[in-house]
Amino acid sequence: MRNLLRILAGLLAIGVIVLPVVAVLNGWIGVERFPFRRLRIEGELNPGDAAEVRATLAPLTRRGFFATDLHKAQAALSTLPWVAHAEVRKRWPDEIDVKVDAQRPFAYWGKSQLVSDKGLLFPRNDGMVLPKGMPQLDGDPRNVADVLALYAKSRELFAATGIGVNTLAQDRRGSWNMVLSDGTQVVIGRNDAEARIERFAGLMPRLVAQQGRPLQRADLRYTNGFALVWSGAPAAGDRKPGAAKPAAPETTPAPALPAPLPLPTPIAFNADTSRIPFHVPLMAYRIS
């Protein structure tokens, strides 16, 4: 009797495993009987992101609840450039749940891209809700880490002056250029960029105080000085960088300067505070 019960239990276990497979193969529990009717998306999304998730999953979920491959669905979502991580689950009887972690923009990159807080480039789409105060960065996409590193160092060096770094770019020749939050254009050059910025940032407050007028442009490519253009002063010709000595500072007392422009609130790179809140409620979409 016991042997018979064991045999029956074994056959039942085999049936539980085999029957669903046979049923799927024969279409017994296909899309006609167990279709997905709801798509539930959880995440901080921009306008249009939910529609893109729906369009990506629609062809992969047509086979119904039991035949849909969640691994393929998750892999398809992960290929979207704005998606950092995605999880896909089924919820009985007719719902598929998606949790999406979107790339968090840290800065503009070039004309049509963004760079995330993890140093990854992704497209800038129309309708994106972006935080204010993001810097404008540019350069060879292969050198994103170098651009971010120099930006972080530059912002740190200028922080003591109450001035932010709005723009940092590296051209095809490897030469660096910068625009500060007070509008000053800074030509850095190719070599020793960090050392040049550090020297200039340390002297800039004193130079501005001595002149008593805003600085428009600074060329740091000189061996032992800077070429400076001041507001309202004639430009000093287009001299090529060389071993020029800095001009002697004026000793006339400078008038009181206005309060420095407020430092923008850029997001700290690779820090917890860099998480950008896109407050989007949980959305449910019906798959047709």
TrEMBL record:
The keyword Membrane applies. It comes from the Bacteria. GO terms for cellular component: cell division site; plasma membrane. Residues 243-254 have a biased composition (Low complexity). One of its GO terms (biological process) is FtsZ-dependent cytokinesis. It is a single-pass type II membrane protein. It is found in: Cell inner membrane; Membrane. Residues 34-103 form the POTRA domain. Pfam families: FtsQ_DivIB_C, POTRA_1. Keywords: Cell cycle, Cell division, Cell inner membrane, Cell membrane, Membrane, Transmembrane, Transmembrane helix. The keyword rRNA-binding does not apply. Residues 237-259 are annotated as: Disordered. Essential cell division protein. May link together the upstream cell division proteins, which are predominantly cytoplasmic, with the downstream cell division proteins, which are predominantly periplasmic. May control correct divisome assembly. Part of a complex composed of FtsB, FtsL and FtsQ. PANTHER family: CELL DIVISION PROTEIN FTSQ. Belongs to the FtsQ/DivIB family. FtsQ subfamily. This is Cell division protein FtsQ.
